[in-house]
Amino acid sequence: MNGIEGASLFFGGGRLSGGPVERLTRRIGDLGDIFSDSEAYARLPVDRVVYEVESHFPVAGGTEGGLFVGITYIHPGKVGQEYFMTKGHFHAVRNRAEVYICIEGEGMLILMNEDHSRVWAEKMEPGSIHYINGHVAHRTANTGSGVLSFGAVWPSDAGHDYQTISEKGFSKILVEKDGVATLVNRP
Ligand code: M6P
Ligand code: ZN
Questions:
Q1: Taking the mean position of all CA atoms in its chain, how far away is CA 64?
Q2: Domain spans in the chain, listed from the N-terminal domain onward
């Protein structure tokens, strides 16, 4: 043995492999409370896949000082005029930051401050790197015609606060307006 080891985790061919990987699929039926147009939502098949997440958790959730890594794949589509997107969350431990790195596709990272008074977005394109401050809620939307995929790295003690988002939502939504992705006030 020469003491040289390969990485146990590998991203290639649009898939995370190697180390233990947990896979999560979110379908239309799982996402009833995030999209604004409930009539358009009701017309979509409940089993249509909106996004998938592959994650590697090298330490137990809640461990201080560790990191988690994941790849998210959002399929193209819209509910009415609103683009397919992730649930979105604050971190349960509010000061924990996160980094996203776009791999493929076109999208927007939608961000909201802690008192919900400001929502803004950053364009995601292959190679774009996004530092998400702690205290900022984050969700991603696919604005393109193919899959949007991005890598994420976040602290193992950050946790996910989905409750605040499901109760109050983001104060702006990302819709297609005259062919352009546009943030508008939530109806
Ligand atoms: C990224 C990370 C994950 C998150 C996933 C999907 O991979 O931020 O922590 O779970 O996106 O986002 P959400 O949990 O909001 O559905
Ligand atoms: Zn996060």
A1: 23
A2: 20-185
Which ligand minimizes its atom distance to the CA of 53?
1
Out of 86, 96, 103, 138, mutate this one to test ligand 1's pocket (max ligand atoms within 8 Å of CB): namely 86
Reported as a single tens digit per residue, the pLDDT across 50-85 is: 999 999 999 999 999 999 999 999 999 999 999 999
In this prediction the pTM is: 0.96
Q: Atom 1 in ligand 1: which residue has the minimum CA distance?
A: 152
Of 134, 133, 132, 137, the C-alpha closest to 168 is: 137
* Ligand 1 pocket, residue 160 CB under 6 Å: yes
Domain 20-185 has CATH 2.60.120.10: yes
Euclidean distance between CA atoms 60 and 35, whole angstroms: 32
Q: Is the CB of 154 under 6 A from ligand 1?
A: yes
pLDDT in tens, 156-168: 999 999 999 999 9
Q: What's the confidence (pLDDT) of residue 1?
A: 62
Q: Is the CB of 87 under 6 A from ligand 1?
A: yes
